[in-house]
Amino acid sequence: MTIDNLPPLRDVIATHDLAAKKSLGQNFLLDLNLTAKIARLAGDLTGADVLEIGPGPGGLTRGLLAEGARRVLAIEKDPRCMPVLAEIAAAYPGRLQAINGDALDVNPLVHLTPPIKVAANLPYNVGTELLVRWLTPPEWPPFWDSLTLMFQREVAQRIVAQPGTKAYGRLALLAQWRSDPSIVMDLPPEAFSPPPKVSSAVVHLRALPAPRFEANPATLNRVVAAAFNQRRKMLRSALKSLSPDAEEYLKIAGIKPTERAEQLSLEEFCALARAFDA
Among 76, 132, 222, 274, whose CB has the most other CB atoms within 10 angstroms? Predict the structure, then answer.
Protein backbone atom coordinates (compact mmCIF):
# COMPACT_ATOMS: atom_id res chain seq x y z
CA MET A 1 0.00 0.00 0.00
CA THR A 2 1.29 3.44 -0.90
CA ILE A 3 -0.37 6.86 -0.75
CA ASP A 4 2.29 8.66 -2.79
CA ASN A 5 5.25 7.88 -5.02
CA LEU A 6 7.55 7.18 -2.07
CA PRO A 7 8.63 3.64 -1.06
CA PRO A 8 6.70 1.48 1.44
CA LEU A 9 7.67 2.11 5.07
CA ARG A 10 9.25 -1.34 5.56
CA ASP A 11 11.62 -0.56 2.66
CA VAL A 12 12.36 2.90 4.11
CA ILE A 13 13.22 1.41 7.50
CA ALA A 14 15.45 -1.26 5.92
CA THR A 15 17.23 1.22 3.62
CA HIS A 16 18.01 3.66 6.43
CA ASP A 17 18.59 1.00 9.14
CA LEU A 18 15.90 2.47 11.40
CA ALA A 19 15.39 -0.24 14.00
CA ALA A 20 13.07 1.22 16.65
CA LYS A 21 14.82 2.31 19.86
CA LYS A 22 13.14 1.47 23.16
CA SER A 23 15.03 4.33 24.84
CA LEU A 24 13.17 6.79 22.59
CA GLY A 25 9.76 5.15 23.12
CA GLN A 26 9.63 4.21 19.43
CA ASN A 27 7.02 1.87 17.98
CA PHE A 28 6.57 2.47 14.25
CA LEU A 29 3.16 2.26 12.57
CA LEU A 30 3.93 0.79 9.14
CA ASP A 31 0.52 0.53 7.45
CA LEU A 32 0.00 3.66 5.33
CA ASN A 33 -3.73 2.87 5.24
CA LEU A 34 -3.80 3.38 9.01
CA THR A 35 -1.64 6.50 9.01
CA ALA A 36 -3.86 8.08 6.34
CA LYS A 37 -6.94 7.20 8.42
CA ILE A 38 -5.41 8.86 11.51
CA ALA A 39 -4.67 11.94 9.40
CA ARG A 40 -8.34 12.05 8.32
CA LEU A 41 -9.44 11.82 11.97
CA ALA A 42 -7.73 15.19 12.52
CA GLY A 43 -10.41 16.78 10.30
CA ASP A 44 -10.02 19.02 7.27
CA LEU A 45 -6.31 19.81 6.98
CA THR A 46 -6.35 21.80 3.76
CA GLY A 47 -6.22 25.23 5.41
CA ALA A 48 -4.17 24.29 8.48
CA ASP A 49 -0.60 23.94 9.65
CA VAL A 50 0.01 20.67 11.50
CA LEU A 51 2.45 20.02 14.33
CA GLU A 52 3.69 16.42 14.46
CA ILE A 53 5.85 15.06 17.29
CA GLY A 54 7.99 11.96 16.78
CA PRO A 55 7.39 11.29 13.08
CA GLY A 56 9.97 8.47 12.96
CA PRO A 57 10.12 7.09 9.39
CA GLY A 58 7.30 9.43 8.37
CA GLY A 59 4.22 7.24 8.02
CA LEU A 60 1.83 9.73 9.62
CA THR A 61 3.76 12.63 8.07
CA ARG A 62 3.00 11.26 4.61
CA GLY A 63 -0.63 10.72 5.60
CA LEU A 64 -0.99 14.33 6.76
CA LEU A 65 0.58 15.69 3.57
CA ALA A 66 -1.42 13.36 1.31
CA GLU A 67 -4.62 14.47 3.07
CA GLY A 68 -3.83 18.07 2.13
CA ALA A 69 -2.19 19.67 5.18
CA ARG A 70 -1.10 23.17 4.22
CA ARG A 71 2.19 22.64 6.04
CA VAL A 72 3.62 20.10 8.51
CA LEU A 73 6.21 20.84 11.19
CA ALA A 74 7.73 17.54 12.31
CA ILE A 75 9.90 17.50 15.45
CA GLU A 76 12.05 14.37 15.71
CA LYS A 77 14.56 13.57 18.44
CA ASP A 78 16.24 10.68 16.57
CA PRO A 79 18.81 12.06 14.08
CA ARG A 80 18.68 8.77 12.11
CA CYS A 81 15.22 9.77 10.84
CA MET A 82 16.23 13.12 9.37
CA PRO A 83 17.37 11.81 5.93
CA VAL A 84 14.00 10.02 5.54
CA LEU A 85 12.10 13.19 6.43
CA ALA A 86 14.26 15.12 3.94
CA GLU A 87 13.16 12.69 1.20
CA ILE A 88 9.49 13.28 2.12
CA ALA A 89 10.08 17.06 2.12
CA ALA A 90 11.51 16.79 -1.41
CA ALA A 91 8.39 14.92 -2.56
CA TYR A 92 6.12 17.64 -1.08
CA PRO A 93 8.01 20.87 -1.90
CA GLY A 94 7.57 23.69 0.60
CA ARG A 95 5.11 21.77 2.78
CA LEU A 96 7.29 19.89 5.31
CA GLN A 97 9.78 21.30 7.79
CA ALA A 98 11.61 18.74 9.94
CA ILE A 99 13.48 19.77 13.09
CA ASN A 100 15.90 17.47 14.90
CA GLY A 101 15.29 18.16 18.58
CA ASP A 102 13.38 17.34 21.75
CA ALA A 103 9.71 18.34 21.54
CA LEU A 104 9.85 19.35 25.21
CA ASP A 105 12.47 21.99 24.36
CA VAL A 106 11.40 23.28 20.92
CA ASN A 107 8.96 26.19 20.61
CA PRO A 108 6.88 25.23 17.56
CA LEU A 109 4.98 28.50 17.35
CA VAL A 110 7.82 30.38 15.63
CA HIS A 111 7.42 27.96 12.69
CA LEU A 112 3.60 27.70 12.46
CA THR A 113 0.75 29.89 11.22
CA PRO A 114 -2.82 29.51 12.61
CA PRO A 115 -5.06 27.65 12.32
CA ILE A 116 -2.90 24.92 13.87
CA LYS A 117 -3.74 21.27 14.52
CA VAL A 118 -1.56 18.77 16.38
CA ALA A 119 -1.43 15.18 15.11
CA ALA A 120 1.05 12.66 16.42
CA ASN A 121 1.80 9.07 17.26
CA LEU A 122 3.39 10.30 20.48
CA PRO A 123 6.43 8.53 21.92
CA TYR A 124 5.08 6.72 25.00
CA ASN A 125 7.72 8.22 27.30
CA VAL A 126 6.69 11.88 26.75
CA GLY A 127 3.08 11.64 25.58
CA THR A 128 1.33 12.49 28.84
CA GLU A 129 3.73 15.34 29.67
CA LEU A 130 3.15 16.97 26.27
CA LEU A 131 -0.63 16.60 26.59
CA VAL A 132 -0.63 18.29 30.01
CA ARG A 133 1.45 21.17 28.59
CA TRP A 134 -1.00 21.65 25.71
CA LEU A 135 -3.96 21.62 28.11
CA THR A 136 -2.45 24.10 30.59
CA PRO A 137 -1.12 27.10 28.64
CA PRO A 138 -0.94 30.52 30.37
CA GLU A 139 -3.83 31.76 28.23
CA TRP A 140 -6.92 30.13 26.71
CA PRO A 141 -7.88 29.47 23.90
CA PRO A 142 -4.59 27.69 23.12
CA PHE A 143 -2.49 27.83 19.95
CA TRP A 144 -4.11 24.60 18.70
CA ASP A 145 -7.62 24.01 17.36
CA SER A 146 -7.48 20.26 17.91
CA LEU A 147 -5.20 17.46 19.08
CA THR A 148 -5.29 14.04 17.41
CA LEU A 149 -2.93 11.90 19.45
CA MET A 150 -2.05 8.25 19.86
CA PHE A 151 -1.50 6.94 23.39
CA GLN A 152 -1.37 3.66 25.22
CA ARG A 153 -5.03 2.65 25.53
CA GLU A 154 -4.83 2.93 29.32
CA VAL A 155 -3.82 6.62 29.02
CA ALA A 156 -6.54 7.25 26.42
CA GLN A 157 -9.14 5.83 28.82
CA ARG A 158 -7.89 8.15 31.58
CA ILE A 159 -8.43 11.17 29.29
CA VAL A 160 -12.11 10.38 28.64
CA ALA A 161 -12.92 8.76 32.03
CA GLN A 162 -16.10 9.67 33.91
CA PRO A 163 -16.64 10.10 37.69
CA GLY A 164 -16.99 6.88 39.67
CA THR A 165 -14.50 4.92 37.54
CA LYS A 166 -10.95 3.79 38.36
CA ALA A 167 -9.50 5.66 35.40
CA TYR A 168 -11.04 8.98 36.50
CA GLY A 169 -8.49 11.46 37.80
CA ARG A 170 -6.46 14.58 37.11
CA LEU A 171 -5.94 13.85 33.40
CA ALA A 172 -9.69 13.47 32.76
CA LEU A 173 -10.45 16.73 34.56
CA LEU A 174 -7.69 18.68 32.79
CA ALA A 175 -8.83 17.41 29.38
CA GLN A 176 -12.57 17.76 29.89
CA TRP A 177 -12.45 21.20 31.50
CA ARG A 178 -11.13 22.93 28.40
CA SER A 179 -11.65 20.49 25.53
CA ASP A 180 -14.00 17.91 24.12
CA PRO A 181 -12.08 14.59 24.11
CA SER A 182 -13.12 11.29 22.54
CA ILE A 183 -11.46 8.00 21.61
CA VAL A 184 -11.76 7.75 17.82
CA MET A 185 -9.69 4.68 16.97
CA ASP A 186 -8.24 1.56 18.63
CA LEU A 187 -5.06 -0.16 17.46
CA PRO A 188 -3.78 -3.61 18.50
CA PRO A 189 -0.09 -4.19 19.34
CA GLU A 190 0.48 -6.05 16.06
CA ALA A 191 -0.18 -2.86 14.08
CA PHE A 192 3.26 -1.63 15.21
CA SER A 193 6.87 -2.60 14.69
CA PRO A 194 8.03 -3.72 17.15
CA PRO A 195 4.67 -4.62 18.75
CA PRO A 196 4.33 -2.93 22.17
CA LYS A 197 3.05 -4.94 25.13
CA VAL A 198 -0.13 -2.84 25.29
CA SER A 199 -2.94 -1.76 22.97
CA SER A 200 -3.08 1.80 21.69
CA ALA A 201 -5.83 4.30 20.95
CA VAL A 202 -6.17 7.60 19.11
CA VAL A 203 -7.79 10.43 21.06
CA HIS A 204 -9.21 13.53 19.38
CA LEU A 205 -9.51 16.64 21.56
CA ARG A 206 -11.26 19.73 20.25
CA ALA A 207 -10.38 22.95 22.07
CA LEU A 208 -13.36 24.74 23.63
CA PRO A 209 -13.47 28.53 23.21
CA ALA A 210 -13.67 28.84 27.02
CA PRO A 211 -13.53 26.38 29.95
CA ARG A 212 -16.78 24.53 30.68
CA PHE A 213 -17.05 26.02 34.18
CA GLU A 214 -15.46 29.05 35.80
CA ALA A 215 -12.39 28.38 37.96
CA ASN A 216 -8.88 29.72 38.49
CA PRO A 217 -6.59 27.24 36.66
CA ALA A 218 -3.89 27.23 39.35
CA THR A 219 -6.41 26.75 42.18
CA LEU A 220 -8.27 24.03 40.31
CA ASN A 221 -5.00 22.21 39.65
CA ARG A 222 -4.02 22.36 43.34
CA VAL A 223 -7.43 21.15 44.50
CA VAL A 224 -7.54 18.30 42.00
CA ALA A 225 -3.96 17.23 42.77
CA ALA A 226 -4.55 17.21 46.54
CA ALA A 227 -7.84 15.32 46.16
CA PHE A 228 -6.42 12.56 43.95
CA ASN A 229 -3.07 12.26 45.74
CA GLN A 230 -5.09 10.64 48.53
CA ARG A 231 -8.02 9.40 46.49
CA ARG A 232 -9.05 6.75 49.04
CA LYS A 233 -9.52 9.34 51.77
CA MET A 234 -12.62 11.43 52.32
CA LEU A 235 -12.19 14.91 50.87
CA ARG A 236 -12.30 16.59 54.27
CA SER A 237 -9.06 14.72 55.07
CA ALA A 238 -7.45 14.74 51.61
CA LEU A 239 -7.78 18.54 51.29
CA LYS A 240 -6.41 19.35 54.77
CA SER A 241 -2.99 19.79 53.15
CA LEU A 242 -4.40 22.84 51.31
CA SER A 243 -6.22 24.43 54.24
CA PRO A 244 -7.35 23.58 57.78
CA ASP A 245 -10.73 25.01 56.70
CA ALA A 246 -11.14 22.49 53.86
CA GLU A 247 -14.34 21.06 55.31
CA GLU A 248 -15.91 24.53 55.38
CA TYR A 249 -15.00 25.11 51.73
CA LEU A 250 -16.56 21.78 50.77
CA LYS A 251 -19.82 22.83 52.43
CA ILE A 252 -19.75 26.22 50.66
CA ALA A 253 -19.40 24.36 47.34
CA GLY A 254 -22.35 22.12 48.22
CA ILE A 255 -20.20 18.98 48.50
CA LYS A 256 -20.46 16.40 51.27
CA PRO A 257 -17.15 16.38 53.21
CA THR A 258 -17.36 12.56 53.29
CA GLU A 259 -17.20 12.26 49.47
CA ARG A 260 -14.06 10.94 47.78
CA ALA A 261 -12.27 12.51 44.82
CA GLU A 262 -13.44 10.03 42.19
CA GLN A 263 -17.10 10.75 43.05
CA LEU A 264 -16.92 14.46 42.20
CA SER A 265 -17.90 15.82 38.79
CA LEU A 266 -15.87 18.41 36.91
CA GLU A 267 -18.52 21.02 37.77
CA GLU A 268 -18.16 20.21 41.49
CA PHE A 269 -14.37 20.46 41.36
CA CYS A 270 -14.69 23.89 39.73
CA ALA A 271 -17.18 25.00 42.42
CA LEU A 272 -14.73 23.79 45.07
CA ALA A 273 -11.87 25.76 43.46
CA ARG A 274 -14.05 28.88 43.51
CA ALA A 275 -14.84 28.27 47.20
CA PHE A 276 -11.13 28.06 48.03
CA ASP A 277 -10.47 31.31 46.14
CA ALA A 278 -13.37 33.12 47.77
Answer: 76
Burial (CB count within 10 angstroms: exposed 0-12, middle 13-18, buried 19+), residue 174: buried
**Which are the contacts of 244, defined by CB distance < 8 A and separation ≥ 6?**
none
3 state SS of 50: strand
What is the fold, at CATH topology level, of the domain defined by 217-277?
A: Helicase, Ruva Protein; domain 3 (1.10.8)
pLDDT digits (tens, 9 = 90+) for 66-87: 999 999 999 999 999 999 999 9
Cα(20)–Cα(268) distance, rounded to whole angstroms? 44
Nearest to 82 by CA among 172, 2, 16: 16
DSSP secondary structure, 67-92, as one string? TT-SEEEEEES-GGGHHHHHHHHHHS
**What's the length of the chain?**
278
Residues 45 and 68 sit within 8 Å (Cβ to Cβ): yes
Question: What is the CB neighbour count within 10 angstroms for residue 188?
Answer: 12
Q: Which homologous superfamily is 9-207 in?
A: Vaccinia Virus protein VP39 (3.40.50.150)
Nearest to 74 by CA among 43, 36, 106: 106
Q: Stretch 242-264: mean pLDDT, rounded? A: 97
CA torsion sign, 270 to 274 to 275 to 277? positive
Q: What is the pLDDT of residues 101-148, one digit of tens each?
A: 999 999 999 999 999 999 999 887 889 999 999 999 999 999 999 999
Residue 20: what pLDDT? 78
241-254: average pLDDT = 97
Query: Which pTM does this prediction carry?
Result: 0.94
The domain limits of the chain are 9-207, 217-277
| Beta carbons of 159 and 151 less than 8 angstroms apart | yes
